[in-house]
């Protein structure tokens, strides 16, 4: 299975592979049936962008089994897991597109794996890229909502590979408020908002927008009081 060819516009220079590490226990006494081997999957770091081996539950190693018996079933099992992980790229892409309805088009997004996206949201007296107003307008396009850039903040979304089973993590960032190291103030990473993997992407986006309507006000207050980092 060539994972690189399965991902459109794949940026990987080298072929992505998954390896099985097998450790056979050695005992001092003779045993008619060998003990079960200790198994661990190893992969290249880049593969985590689309498929995490940490989420894989390996098939059981039965008593008396040898590696030649185990590998075919494992290869078939991993093949199905990888195919499902690649198909979820499009699911995440549709979700990001659905977020464009309440927020406008993203100012930044992961176009290959669809794991990250950044939007603008209006709230109070926040300022986002005040000195780059025309550039932001160009990036957002002519069909999106027109934001008052004197009252916006950044909404960062990190979308897990297991989406929609796992919900995105959300973080707010102000470019008007800075901490003692002169870095923009950021909210906590939030994943405690209403969510169901059975919802349509449009409803997911709507519920996130409703949640952020109140959370943005709390974030504004915390920024003014210097309570966030």
Walk me through the structure.
By secondary structure, the protein is of the alpha+beta class. The chain has two domains: 3-87, no CATH class; 93-225, no CATH class. 32% of the residues lie in helices and 18% in strands. The chain contains four helices and seven strands, in the order αββαββαβββα. The protein has helices at 3-6, 67-103, 133-140, 201-225; strands at residues 18-23, 38-43, 108-109, 116-122, 152-158, 169-178, 184-186. The strands form two sheets. A five-stranded antiparallel beta sheet has the order 3-4-5-6-7, with helices on one face. β3 (108-109) and β4 form a beta hairpin. α2 (67-103) crosses α4. The chain is elongated. It starts with a helix and ends with a helix. The model is unreliable at 124-151 (pLDDT under 50).
Question: What's this entry about, in short?
Answer:
By secondary structure, the chain is an alpha+beta fold. The strands form 2 sheets. The protein has a 5-stranded antiparallel beta sheet, covered by helices on one side. A two-stranded antiparallel sheet has the order 1-2.
Key words describing this protein structure:
two-stranded antiparallel sheet, chromatin regulator, 18% strand, 5-stranded antiparallel β-sheet, 229 residues, 2 domains
